[in-house]
From TrEMBL:
This is tRNA (N6-threonylcarbamoyladenosine(37)-N6)-methyltransferase TrmO. PANTHER family: TRNA (ADENINE(37)-N6)-METHYLTRANSFERASE. GO terms for molecular function: methyltransferase activity. InterPro entries: TrmO-like_N, TrmO_C, YaeB-like, YaeB-like_sf, YaeB_N_sf. Belongs to the tRNA methyltransferase O family. CDD domains: UPF0066.
Length: 234
């Protein structure tokens, strides 16, 4: 089998430290995160001119996946309910021969600390600690294809915070551990229904999503609404 070794140029830092809760596609939720680079790739010289672009392509590694001994030509994507099999190259499944992901993210700003660049980005679908393999600018005139077809954007669920959750979030916001923006973002993440496909019909079963230093409890009620029921410091 032919192989090619790719260098890791940096690592993604995000409040989402577990796969559960990470958006299944980029730009579904405006999660703010950043990329720190390893020497020598973080030199400011390598990023001259990058501010002219609003978005970037990020090439990254599915580092939480176990290496597959044999090639699996078909997968069960969540978009199809986790039941139907289709070809791996017709999906964005994490279970791929190369274990490489590709995402478009928004570029917020470029920061330089100790002569090393930190890229602040928005909309990533990567877990905290994800190895970064390459970065390229997104070019709307070639990357935005008119008339492209495929799946429509998924419709999110409605989300409500019960009184207990509101009170607990208020305490954490006043303490400075969370912000009102964090609370809104958590609601958007839960609206995407991070539960695996085979569990998305479950009613009244409490799940926990980790965000930064807290775990957020939520469940789906009988009307299909996601109810945030509590938040606690881990």
């Amino acid at each position: 089998m032919n192989t090619h070794v790719l260098p890791i140029i940096g690592y993604h830092n995000s409040p989402l430290s577990q796969k559960f809760g990470v958006p299944r596609q980029p730009n579904l939720v405006a999660v703010k995160s950043h990329i720190r680079f390893v020497v020598p790739y973080g030199t400011p010289d390598a990023f001259v001119g990058i501010e002219r672009y609003s978005h970037l392509w990020i090439l990254w590694q599915f580092h939480h996946n176990k290496e597959q001994a044999n090639f699996r030509p078909q997968v069960r994507p969540p978009r199809l309910g986790g039941n139907d099999k289709i070809g791996v190259f017709a999906t964005r499944s994490m279970y791929r021969p190369s274990g490489v992901g590709l995402s478009v993210v928004g570029l917020d700003r470029v920061e330089v600390v100790d002569n090393q660049v930190i890229l602040h980005i928005t909309g990533a679908d990567m877990v905290d600690g994800t190895p970064i393999l390459d970065i390229k600018p997104y070019l709307p005139y070639v990357d935005g294809v008119n008339g492209a077809t495929g799946f429509d954007k998924p419709t999110g669920r409605n989300v409500v915070f019960n009184d207990k959750a509101h009170d607990e979030f208020d305490v954490l916001i006043k303490s400075g551990l969370l912000t009102t923006d964090d609370k809104a973002l958590i609601g958007e993440l839960i609206a995407q229904d991070p539960r695996p496909a085979y569990r998305q019909s479950e009613i009244g079963v409490v799940c926990a999503m980790r965000y930064g230093a807290v775990d957020v409890d939520f469940m789906m009620n009988e009307w299909g609404v996601m109810v945030v029921s509590g938040v606690r410091v881990i």
